[in-house]
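Reagents: none. Just compute today. Stage 0 sporulation protein A homolog.
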Amino acid sequence: MAKILIVEDDKSINDLIAMNLSIIGYECEKAFDGNAAAEMIKNSRYDLILLDIMLPGISGIDLLKQNTCENTKVILITAKGGLNDKLEAFNLGAFDYIVKPFEMLELIARVKVALKNFDVNENIIIKDVEIRLREHKVLKSGQEVDLTILEYNLLETLVINRNIALSREKLLEVVWGYDFEGDTRTVDVHIMKLRKKLGFDDVIKTVYKMGYRLEVSQ
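Predicted 3D structure written out:
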């Protein structure tokens, strides 16, 4: 299991990243300032560091300059989106660079690229339903559920972002693609089918005037 250090002084963002990465099987630790991060990196081994630039204490850039993160892949996550900022980060050895605000799906995808040689726990169980992400297979009470490609992709998106409200427009963008010319009622129809097939009436919640959230206890 890959071990990730999240260095972000905004607790809500740090917690959100950790929750989503933990869901898909990564081991996450958190630091909220540069000094704490430097100490944790000194005393532990991490496979990936998600690093904010503007931190209390030692900045993310200074951590890179001091070779604090040497031999560990680093993805910088920052509000600083200028070309010079990016070039400096890459010249100092950053593996990737994400500008805030970011989409959680994008972050997860970039983390998976950085850690492509690691296996994660991709079997997720909710009630009597097992979602096998690697196999693109869903079982209910041990029996395989017949889902269309779109139904499965919609379920996977909700699972990866569970306990997070997703708008109908965002679901259309992610599941159907940018060029989909339908309307948001398409999402409602597929949500209804998922609820029926999986018995998820109380799991896939409707978020008033927005979209949906797959809700489970942590």
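The chain has two domains: 3-114, 123-214.
Action item: order primers for follow-up constructs.
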